[in-house]
Amino acid sequence: MAENEPKILSFLCSWCSYGAADLAGVSRMEYPPNIRVIRIPCTGRMSPKFILAGLKQGADAVWVSG
Amino acid sequence: MDPDKCIACGVCAEKCPKKVDDKYNAGLSQRKAIYVEYAQAVPLKYSIDAENCIYLTKGKCGSCKKKCPVGAVDYEQTEKKLKINVGSVILAPGFEAFNPNGLDNYQYANYPNVVTSLEFERLLSASGPTMGHVVRPSDKEEPKRIAWFQCVGSRDMNKCDNSYCSSVCCMYAIKEAVIAKEHAGDGLDCSIFFMDMRTPGKEFERFYENAKKKSGVNFIRSRVHTINPVGDTGDLELRYVTETGELKTEIFDMVVLSIGLQTPPALVDLAGKLGIELTPGKFCKTDTFSPVSTSKEGIFVCGAFQGPKDIPQAVIDSSAAASAAAEVLAEARDTKTKEVAVIEERNVVGERPKIGVFVCKCGINIAGVVDVPAVAQYAASLPYVDFVDENLFSCSQDNQNNMANLIKEKGLNRIVVAACTPKTHEPLFQETLFNAGLNKYLFEMTNIRNQNSWVHKNNPELATQKAKDLVRMAVAKVALMEPLKEVKLTVNHTAMVIGGGISGLTAAKSLANQGYETHLIEREHRLGGQALNLFHTAKGDDVQQNLSKIIESVNSDEKITVHLNTQINNVDGFVGNFVSTLSTDGKTEELEHGVAIVATGAAPLVPTEYDYGKDPRILTSLELDKKMINHDPMLKDLNSAVFIQCVGSREPERMYCSRVCCTHSIENALELKKINPDMNVYILYRDIRTYGEKEYLYKQAREQGIIFIRFSLENKPVVTSKDGNVIVTITDHVLGRPMELNADLVSLATAIVPYRDEQLANFFKVPMNEDGFFIEKHAKLGPSEFATDGTFLCGMAHYPKPIDESIAQAKASVARAVTLLSKTTIYSSGTIAEVEPAKCASCGVCVSVCPYSAPSFATEGRFAGKAEINPALCKGCGLCVASCRSGAIHLKGFDTDQIFSQIFEMDEAV
Amino acid sequence: MKNMLEHTGIEPGRLHFSWISSAESTKFVDVVKKITEEVKALDPHKKFVKTEPKVD
What superfamily in CATH does domain B495-601+755-826 come from? Predict the structure, then answer.
């Protein structure tokens, strides 16, 4: 992967942002292909451990969205 | 279009050459002649607009048929006439928005910057034509000053024939103004021109106050009579008269007309065909005591066709109509149900993961961007992947069969599907696993269409890379998935209704009519609740007569057990399996029940102002009702009566409107006029809130010479007793001078106050708002139930409301309860939280954070004192898992190691 | 969380939170674009990353 293509680990709430992401697809909107989505049942499921693990694993950034 | 074949890939719309104004966006944008009406449409299927389709109108084109990858386009489809044999009919046809084209004073048709509230709604919407960026139509500039005009097509007999109030416009105008300011920042000035501000719904008054104080929306009490254009700037000059009679001229960039609701002519025709009666406002005529029944037996009504109303009330009515229909059809329940064949599940515990990966091309939807063969080839190289397949359409029926066979043939025990979104397709594939004898939780879906090929079409290389990453993450996760069990629970078919007022009585009767044993709990020695104090309804029905009929029917129903003088001492258990301890006159008994309906009502405020209690002529509204019920002779001798509104409501310490008092006082004032037409009757008010068709009463009252005088919270009337006379002093807002009214009777419209029953809230673990009313599951979509499963809500325990609305909500709560009672067993979801008791520190965080009251401390057994989670109540949100300090809680299907495995596989292994 | 990360030497621009309703696809896209740009402006993330010992 090219150096200037960062990977952004994204935790998306299944009910909210994940739905918005699906809808963005239905509407054929375009956005940069840098996010890697993990679907979580609710942002309540998020734990700081996941964020640290992501950064440790080499994610250039972590995004949590409810 | 064949909806069974359409996969909503959208190729047809992309290729369709015909553009049409998009009605959904109020004509502010365009769509194609083959289209989905709006992005969130369910089911997500395309349809052809036959009026605009080139092929259907001119016989040429056919582009969509050629391009459709699944052959779903069928130009030969015609209207079919179906004959359906039904036991009852529910009318839910809705309304049409008032068309302001004909109003010459507002020039909607001629000035582009005069828009309707529905058009403005689309401008505000993130999915609208401007993506939520508010611009005015004439020059696409951001407006700096917007004015809303209320009551356009409502409360108006001069410019149109709609003399009723449309009920919803005040609230939506405030909402639009607040959101517009949120979108545009402080630079935007929003002014709402109104006659009476009507915000009588739950939490609405607080919203109105915040709009004034926090958002800085201007509220101007005036009806604007003229709009003039300012040269060719697109700006609009408004001329209006202020409350003090001053003529003012102001310039705005944009005007929003708050248009009302009305019944379209086609519905009036339908009503004629069905033989159902309409009201003067052309809404479906219903009775206070049967608010969802039309004049024709077996035909029920809900929503705005019954009367103009907002979403919560429409949702309540719709559930109520379902309940009313079910009461008639109770005997037919389950007569057409078929059993699903059970397929034996293969035990995969101890097996090494054998993962099958299915990569979907979705026609060209995925394969057109992502290199599917490369992704498939890559998937085959991943650990534990035994089998990989590429599908043209993974979701097609033949592929489902194929998949089930492959699972059996190859002995696969974990499945990954890389296709579209799990939100719509996960259940489908899970069913395939089920049919192949595999536990449906041994499955992971990854989204390479909606969240990849569709959004990165100009970047196929990175999209392919992303697809590989996503597949790798899914494979890593699925390897750790375990078969999950859905806990089976039996449902006790007895219901408990708490509160023997009109709501509780109606709920009990409705449950019994549908065949369920019901226990009705009342703390007092008699049934009836607050309705015992009421004289007439807004429609003039005798409350006492109707109430005794209901009580009689409840008492004589053998399925209903009435418990008077009864308190609830304790509640144990959960959905389907509650055990409540009742105490009646010192005797206790245990009651097992499957559901509980809270109908505990509310009480009138005992006023501490306006000299209440110091003179027998100063009464509350209910005390006046009592005199009317008893035909008190003193009512004949009155020469003057003064009604004071908002006694204790809409005050800082009680920031809600009690909803019923305006109508109630006007009804009583009219009654006094009937007794003595020469009586001087005054109503002192802040805003008259006779919403819907109750507006006719307000009109009638003015016609009969009842005098309405407005006051503000800062300048309340003063009641004094002087020389044996009761004097009410009020500052008239037009003259600005104090006036003295000599009153033979003062009626105080006291607030409706909730009981704030903390104990009951604790028993069922349900929340209350700051005013003390119970909080429903969802303000709009779940108004008659609690978030805790198996518990329901109706009547004034929810919010102050008149009898018809209480009865509707009682029936609504029953309809919701019957969705459980009609089952013999319920299954919990498999993806729920579970406690590892050995690690639990009994700190109680999970018990307090859970919004669904699923965790509690075990009371017996080896792990007494440790937390345990009730699988029936758990919604699998994971809040407890994340807040558990000991790491003792696991969320099945989204467990920590499973999420970690995805994180670890995010970047390709070095 | 952000403060803690900053303490360990990780730029705050590497952690983002947002709230988007399921109807707000436009907002979703805007947020993705904004975050991607911000992260691109930072150097590739090196801290904390496990590195294999180099073998010559």
Answer: FAD/NAD(P)-binding domain (3.50.50.60)
